[in-house]
């Protein structure tokens, strides 16, 4: 745990290239990794950050079939979108490559062959579902059927999305191929397995004894898996998209994506550093850190280390600081349901405000438990923290210096006790922020950085340099010198978190470069140094902007409900004479008013062609009374009268209930004589 390393290799989970990236990805993996890498670079340490797109596996092929294109078309499209989103958000990869590259295919094939030749795999023959018409074995997601738990007729072979239960294809009732719609048959197939059970003893020692410092959520999940006992896991599957198994007789089989993808970290490093990649992966003085989400913990803490150990020449990860999941407005983020804030869309709607999202996602990071992103919290943190604390302090310090000292750093004179107390307050900021960053507690580190801005704000409010400037200019010089030194410290403390904003602060201060070891110092800016003209760092976010984003999500929810809507089952058949008993007619609304003290009820006076009748209907939520007068409606004329709120209702208006629960009156498409019969 206290081992000294000469360099750090940071990997970020490879995002799946079947859709864009969203705020959940950013909060769970990429912002924490970027903060850590920027921090190490600022300290002058040797570090590389490796990432790339995961471009193999069944979801890619499913999307390709759905859109009528090739899998390569899908990954080319989304790799470009994902890569640009990361660049636009300042995620500082040294390389961002892809698993469809030639160097990856070669690296993954060689890795498999080495383990195969060492006898590290077990061959197993089993029966799996096969589509005779499509002439292919079916991956779990290509099999649908009835869920044995909730009866959902469209459950997948790996999970029922209706009740959330994990399934095996053989659990499904009446399974069918989603490619041809035919019932599949069982057919024998051979695959290679990594016997994780043989690695169980050293994994228990390595994780449970040697890495007790790992985050509780990571350690706990690993312990749970190890306590249950490990089992062999297939490293190959029957598919035509992926890295082909490099053996004779293995045609139509590719590396399973869980085996293929983590090797992408190695192949991407080889692509970046063809001559020196091995020192990053095979030297004991390299620290390997994987940043991932909680759904990848078992792969990066148990499976990938077992692969590396089986090879025998690679180092193992020193830490895997996985985050939990970020929800959105109280609901799980879902790509398939479009329930997400997509990074490329955020940049279009909030141009130049990358740091606002970086700040909010770090301050609310799901570090050890799931957390929730809401647009109201986004607005509050921007307005109450970035604008009112950080931006306000820096703007005041710089504007006052421009006003009283022509934009030049003033001299510092005799310090008061309050000055000394203030300087002492941020003297240990470096130590505090470092302590948290070194232990992957980015939320706490951000709080420490913001606390420095709070100290600055309080200092200016208490010392009131705009008042001392009228009577005591040397005192004003001292106050603003201290305020400017705090500003320079903020540029350092926030650089790992808010790279775009700290670049602006440095431009305001007319300084090109600041180093981590200067943090906490009170002489960063020399007396007489000329500052540049400042601008506002952050802008207030108005209620209207947030309401638009909330409405966008509500519209998405409505669209999802409409697309998932299933009509209620048809009621049991009735005889025609029974139907003839119902007297359905057309009437004209003579008058419509709200029923007093009843929010849902409207009172209609209807011309039914014979007389005038009163009908009460519960549609007030969807119609205004004044819009219905003079309109024609359909109603059941021979229902027995009943009293509602003391008013006798003689009949029932016909309406249809939409998928969202709203009601629409059934109305003739042309003018009909009142009293006309329907049927």
UniProtKB/TrEMBL annotation:
InterPro entries from the xrefs? aa-tRNA-synth_I_CS (IPR001412), Anticodon_Met (IPR041872), Met-tRNA-synth_bsu_C (IPR004495), Met-tRNA_ligase_1 (IPR023458), Met-tRNA_synth (IPR014758), Methionyl/Leucyl_tRNA_Synth (IPR015413), MetRS_core (IPR033911), MetRS_Zn (IPR029038)
Cofactor binding note from Swiss-Prot or TrEMBL: Binds 1 zinc ion per subunit.
* Motif 'KMSKS' region per UniProt: ranges: 332-336
Name the domain of life.
Answer: Bacteria
SUPFAM superfamilies per UniProt: Anticodon-binding domain of a subclass of class I aminoacyl-tRNA synthetases (SSF47323), Methionyl-tRNA synthetase (MetRS), Zn-domain (SSF57770), Nucleic acid-binding proteins (SSF50249), Nucleotidylyl transferase (SSF52374)
The cofactor required is: Zn(2+)
Which PROSITE patterns does the UniProt record give? AA_TRNA_LIGASE_I, TRBD
Give the GO biological process terms. Answer: methionyl-tRNA aminoacylation
Q: Which UniProt keywords apply?
A: Aminoacyl-tRNA synthetase, ATP-binding, Cytoplasm, Ligase, Metal-binding, Nucleotide-binding, Protein biosynthesis, RNA-binding, tRNA-binding, Zinc
Give the EC class as a word. Answer: ligase
Record keyword Oxidoreductase present: no
Does Acyltransferase appear among the keywords? no
From the Swiss-Prot or TrEMBL record, state where the protein is found.
Cytoplasm
Q: Which GO terms describe its molecular function?
A: ATP binding; metal ion binding; methionine-tRNA ligase activity; tRNA binding
Which EC numbers characterise this protein's activity in its record?
6.1.1.10
| Described purpose of this protein according to its UniProt entry | Is required not only for elongation of protein synthesis but also for the initiation of all mRNA translation through initiator tRNA(fMet) aminoacylation.
Quaternary arrangement and interactors, per the entry? Homodimer.
Which family does this protein fall into? Belongs to the class-I aminoacyl-tRNA synthetase family. MetG type 1 subfamily.
Kindly give the NCBIfam families that the UniProt entry links to this protein: metG, metG_C_term, PRK00133.1
- What PANTHER family does the record tag this protein with? METHIONINE--TRNA LIGASE, METHIONINE--TRNA LIGASE, CYTOPLASMIC
Q: What is this protein called?
A: Methionine--tRNA ligase
Say which species the protein is native to.
Dysgonomonas alginatilytica
Q: What is the lineage of its organism?
A: Bacteria, Pseudomonadati, Bacteroidota, Bacteroidia, Bacteroidales
Q: Which gene encodes it?
A: metG
């Amino acid at each position: 745990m206290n081992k000294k390393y000469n360099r750090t290799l940071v990997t970020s989970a490879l995002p799946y290239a079947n859709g864009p990236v969203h705020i959940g990805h950013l909060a769970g993996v990429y912002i924490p990794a970027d903060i850590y890498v920027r921090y190490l670079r600022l300290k002058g340490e040797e570090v590389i950050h490796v990432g790339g797109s995961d471009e193999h596996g069944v979801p890619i092929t499913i999307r390709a079939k759905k859109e009528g294109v090739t899998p390569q078309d899908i990954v080319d499209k989304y790799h470009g979108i994902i890569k640009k989103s990361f660049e636009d958000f300042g995620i500082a990869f040294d390389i961002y490559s892809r698993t469809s590259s030639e160097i990856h295919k070669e690296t993954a094939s060689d890795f498999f062959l080495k383990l195969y030749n060492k006898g590290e795999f077990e061959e197993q023959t089993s029966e799996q579902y096969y589509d005779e018409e499509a002439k292919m074995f079916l991956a779990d997601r290509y099999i649908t059927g009835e869920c044995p738990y909730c009866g959902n007729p469209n459950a997948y072979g790996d999970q029922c999305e209706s009740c959330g239960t994990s399934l095996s294809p053989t659990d499904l009732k009446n399974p069918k191929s989603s490619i041809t719609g035919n019932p599949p048959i069982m057919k024998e197939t051979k695959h290679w397995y990594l016997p994780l059970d043989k690695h169980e003893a050293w994994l228990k020692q390595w994780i449970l004894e040697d890495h007790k410092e790992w985050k509780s959520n990571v350690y706990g999940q690993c312990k749970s898996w190890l306590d249950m006992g490990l089992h062999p896991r297939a490293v190959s599957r029957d598919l035509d998209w992926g890295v082909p198994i490099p053996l004779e007789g293995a045609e139509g089989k590719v590396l399973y994506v869980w085996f293929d993808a983590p090797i992408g970290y190695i192949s991407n490093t080889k692509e970046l550093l063809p001559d020196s990649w091995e020192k990053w992966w095979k030297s004991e003085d390299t620290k390997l850190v994987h940043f991932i989400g909680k759904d990848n913990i078992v792969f990066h803490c148990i499976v990938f280390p077992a692969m590396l150990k089986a090879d025998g020449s690679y180092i193992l990860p020193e830490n895997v600081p996985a985050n939990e999941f970020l929800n959105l407005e109280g609901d799980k983020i879902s790509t398939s349901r479009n329930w997400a804030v997509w990074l490329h869309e955020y940049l279009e709607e909030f141009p130049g405000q990358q740091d606002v999202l970086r700040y909010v996602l770090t301050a609310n990071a799901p570090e050890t438990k799931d957390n929730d992103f809401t647009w109201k919290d986004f607005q509050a943190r921007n307005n109450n923290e970035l604008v009112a604390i950080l931006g306000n302090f820096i703007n005041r310090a710089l504007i006052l210096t421009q006003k009283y000292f022509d934009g030049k750093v003033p001299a510092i004179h005799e310090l008061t006790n309050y000055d000394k107390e203030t300087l002492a307050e941020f003297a240990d900021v470096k130590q505090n922020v470092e302590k948290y960053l070194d232990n992957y507690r980015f939320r706490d580190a951000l709080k420490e950085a913001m606390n420095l801005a709070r100290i600055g704000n309080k200092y200016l409010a208490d010392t009131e340099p705009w008042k001392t400037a009228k009577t005591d200019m040397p005192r004003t010089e001292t106050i603003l010198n201290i305020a400017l030194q705090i500003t320079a410290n903020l540029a350092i403390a926030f650089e790992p978190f808010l790279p775009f904003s700290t670049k602006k602060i440095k431009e305001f201060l007319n300084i090109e470069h600041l180093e981590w070891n200067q943090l906490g110092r009170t002489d960063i800016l020399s007396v007489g140094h000329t500052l540049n003209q400042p601008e506002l760092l952050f802008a207030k976010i108005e209620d209207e902007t947030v309401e638009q984003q909330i409405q966008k999500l509500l519209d998405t929810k409505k669209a999802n409900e409409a697309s998932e809507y299933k009509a209620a089952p048809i009621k049991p058949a009735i005889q025609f004479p029974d139907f003839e008993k119902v007297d359905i007619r057309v009437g004209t609304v003579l008058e419509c008013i709200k029923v007093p003290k009843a929010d849902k009820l409207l009172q209609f006076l209807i011309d039914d062609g014979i007389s005038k009748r009163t009908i009460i209907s519960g549609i007030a939520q969807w119609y205004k009374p004044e819009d219905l007068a003079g309109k024609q409606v359909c109603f059941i004329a021979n229902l027995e009268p009943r009293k509602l709120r003391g008013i006798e209702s003689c009949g029932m208006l016909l309406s249809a209930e939409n998928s969202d629960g709203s009601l629409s009156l059934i109305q003739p498409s042309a003018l009909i004589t009142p009293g006309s019969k329907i049927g």
